[in-house]
Amino acid sequence: EDLQYNYKLLKIRSNKNGKEWVNKKFEWSDKIYEVLKGKFKFDDFRQKQLAAINSTLSNKDVLLLMPTSGGKSLVYQLTAYISKGLTIVVSPLISLIEDQLRALKKIGIDAASVNANTSKEERKYIHNEMTNPNSKLKLLYVTPEWVAKSKQFMTYLQKCFDKNLLARIVIDEVHCCSTWGHDFRPDYNHLSLFKNMFAGVPIIGLTATATMNILIDIQKMLGLEDAVIITAPFNRPNLFYKVVNKPSEKSECTKLLTKWLSNKYKGKSGIIYTSTVKETEDISAELRKNGIKSKFYHAQMDANDRKTVQERWMDNHYQVIVATIAFGMGIDKPDVRFVIHYCTPKSLESFYQESGRAGRDGQPADCILMFSLNDYLRTSSMTSNKIEEANTKHILQYCLEQTKCRRALIADHFEDTWRQTDCAKMCDHCSQDSKPVSNYNITEPALDLIKIIEFANSKEIKVTLNKLINAWFQSGNKEIRPPNITKPKCTKQMGEYIIGYLIYKEYFVVEKGFTLYTTVGYIQRGNKKINNTTKILMPSKEIINYPISTTTEIQEVIIITEETESDKPPTKKQKLDCS
Ligand code: ADP
Ligand code: MG
Ligand code: ZN
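^ thats the input. predicted complex w/ magnesium ion below
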C-alpha cells in the first residue's frame, strides 16, 4: 500500500509541477532563450525541458523522465553554461561522454572528462580547474566507477564545493541506481553520498526508463524525496510495434530476416538484438551468406573493434548490426528504421529502451519482437529473483495479449496516462489490417496438458516445452504419454501459443532447472486450479479448431464449486457444453 500511496503522490506532484514550472516568468527567462537560440541554435524549448531548467535554476532537485531523444542533455548543458561554477555530470559510458564532449566543443562550451582512461597531466589540469574560481570549464563528466574509486577526485570535488564552485550535479541514466531497473550498477550506490556531502547543490537525475517503483527507489537512495519530478509522455508515435511468431527452425528464422532486410528494409538501417554472443555471430554470418551487409557486435569484442563496427554502421556501410544488449547506450543514429528482437527481452523496460533506438528522426520505424515460447522459457529460467521474474512476466503479457493495443501495454507499465487514440493504428493490434479476435474455449486442451504434466511427474520426469508438446501431439517419449488424451485440434505452433497463454494466466508456471551446461524452464501446474467447471477462454486472431465462446465481454470465467467435484475429469458431454 505504501507503494500505491507514494505512486499517487508522485503522480499528483509530477502533473502539477509540469505546468507550474512552464508558465511562470523567472529572472533568467530571457537569458535562457537567448542562449538556446544563440548558442544551441534551437528555436524553442520542449515543454519538459523548460520545466526542468526552471526548477533546477530555482535550486530544486529534479528527476527528469524523458524518452530517448527527448532532449535531456540540453537541460543540464544549458544550465551549466549559464551558471557560475562547475557542473559535474555522472555518466556511465565513456563513449557516451566522448560524444557529448565533441558536441559541446562544436558550440564552444568548455567541457572535460575524468575517468580511468584520463592521462596524469589531463587529470592534474582538471583538478586545478575544479578549484579555480576563474575557470572557464563548465562541465566535467565522470563515470560512476571513478566516483566510487578515486579518493583524489572526491577530495577535489569537496574542495570545489568548499570554494562555492560546485554549481550542480547531474546523474545520467539514473535508473542504474535501482535494483528494479534493467541496468543496475553497484557503483551508482556511491552517488548517495552527494546529497549530504554537498548540501544545497541541486541534483538532476535523468532517465529514459523508470517505472514508479524505480523512481521511488531512486528518490530513497539519492535522498531526492523532495525533487521535482518531471515526466514526458513515453509514447513514441512514429514507432510501429508488432509481435511476430518466431519460426522454430533457425534456417526459417534466417529466411524471414533475409526477406525483411532485402525487401521492406532494403537500403534501410537497423538493429537485430539477440541474447547470446554466439548467436550474434551466427545470425550475422547467415545473413552475410544471403547477401546482407551485416555485422555482429557484443561485449566480448575489444573496444576498438566495437568502435569500428559502430562507426561503419553509423555511416551505413553495414545495413544491420546483430548485437547483444551491449550495443546500445549512447547510440544516436537518427535514421534507424527497424529494431528486431530476435529473442525475448528481459523486461518491458529493456524492450522499450532497445526498440526506442528506432526512429529517432521522427520518421516511421518498426519495432518487431519475434516471439517463441521456448525463448521465453529460457529467459524466464535465467532469472535470479522475484523482480526479474515479474519483469519477464510482463514481456509474456506484451507478447500474448491479443486484444489490447501494444502501446497501451507499454504505457500501462510506465504508468503513463493513455488514450486509445494515441496509438493512431501504429501497432499490429490497432492497425488497419488487424484480424478480428475470437474467444476460444481451451479448457479441454488445458486439462489434457495437465494430465501429461502429472503423468510425467508421477514418473519423476519434469517436462520441458518440447516434451510437453510432443507428448500432447502423441509423438516422442512414450513414457510421458498418458492414455486417453485427445490429439490437439491445432498446429504445433498454436499448441505452443495455448501453453504460453496458460502460463500467462498462471494456470501453469515455469520451474527453473539446471543441467550441466545451461538452465532450463520446466512447465508445471500453477496455483490456479482448473477443474470441470472452469472455463478458460483464450482470445486469438488465428482460427483454431476449438469452440468459440459467444460471451464476448468475459474472457475468462472460473466457477468455484464444491471440492469433491473439482478433481473429477470432465465427461465428454460437459466438454461440449463448454462452448
Ligand atoms: P536524450 O538524452 O534525451 O536521449 P538528447 O539530449 O541526446 O536526447 O537530444 C536528442 C536530440 O534532440 C538531439 O539531436 C538534440 O539536438 C535535439 N534537441 C534537443 N532539444 C531540442 C530543442 N529544444 N529543439 C530541437 N531539437 C532539440
Ligand atoms: Mg542522453
Ligand atoms: Zn495500438
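The CA atoms of residues 233 and 341 lie 23 Å apart.
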